[in-house]
Amino acid sequence: MISIFLQTAPFFLIVAIGYFSGKYKFLGKRGTDAITKFVFYFALSAMLFRFSAQLEINKIFDLKFVGCYVVATLFLYLLVISASYFSGNKFETSVFDAQIATIGNTGFLGIPLLATLVGPQSVGYVMMILATDFAIFGTLIVVLIMVSRDRKWGIRSLKPIIKGLFQNPMIVSFSLGLVWGYLNFQTPKFLSDFLVILGQAATPGALFAIGASLSFRKVDDPTSAFWLSFLKLFAHPFLVGIMAFYLFYIEPYAAAVMVITASLPVAGNTFMLAQHYKIDPERISAAILLSTLFSALTVTFTIALVL
User: Helices marked H in 89-188 — which ranges?
Assistant: First the structure.
């Protein structure tokens, strides 16, 4: 446990540097947004393209792996909606509670963290989870909100989700890398060096941007934030682990990656969705802040437990 903590500590120290840089006005919100865009559109894309170009397609798309993750996540998703709704919350709030409890910061935190600590071969599994979260649970929350507001929904309602899926630079770069590797194209040395240099900025840049963005968040409802953080950091990886190791019998390494990914803190894009639909964005912001702070210990514990 101590050995794993010492390995994860540098990652969360970079998050801390980002947090205090924003907290003490060394870096403003505009600066944080600029760093976030650089990492999202360039650095992470370079890293993902380089990794995926070395992967074999037939070893990446694993329906059993995806099925296991979907079943475990959907079970918790529906359970949280029910518990939240019957405790007195509005249905829309309950849907967002379920989203908070199940969708983690896979892109910005999960990919650089697991690629470094667990190995670049983990990236394919992490990307499957990222695509599943985006395509299935990103669609589900839109449908449920539309239904709760008695609005007509259909393919037009889902158009932003579908468009976003194909415009997501992480998914696009990962897919292009797979195609590049499948066609057995040789990467010129200058291009390979370029991807390495640019991709090396992904990990520190993403972690710093996460920390800086957290400095702009507040905890107005600590009880709710603690409860939702507990669900994301403990309940989600626990259910995924039971399904992966004991029901679906996923290959041990892949199962470990799935559980670690499930233990990641609440995704930042959940806050953006809440702002868009005007559903308790402050409550969600608090859950993102607390779950990210606690994840320094819980993610470390999960890695030590499953590896």
Answer: 91-102, 111-117, 123-132, 138-148, 159-167, 169-182
Contacts of residue 192, Cβ cutoff 8 Å, sequence gap at least 6: 50
- Name residue, tokens 């889902």: 158
Tokens at 212, concatenated? 């800086």
Dihedral angle computed from the Cα positions of residues 177, 181, 185 and 187, in that order, rounded to the nearest 10 degrees = 60
Q: Note whether 100 and 224 are within 8 A (CB).
A: no
137 conformational bin, left if phi > 0, alpha if psi -120 to 50, beta if neither: alpha
What pTM, to 2 d.p., does this model score? 0.85
Token digits for 91?
Answer: 């249905």
Per-run averaged pLDDT (10 residues), the chain, 307 residues: 82 92 90 90 91 75 92 97 94 94 92 90 91 86 79 61 71 87 89 94 90 84 89 97 96 97 92 80 87 92 92
What gap in Å lies between CA 258 and CA 262, rounded to an integer?
Answer: 6
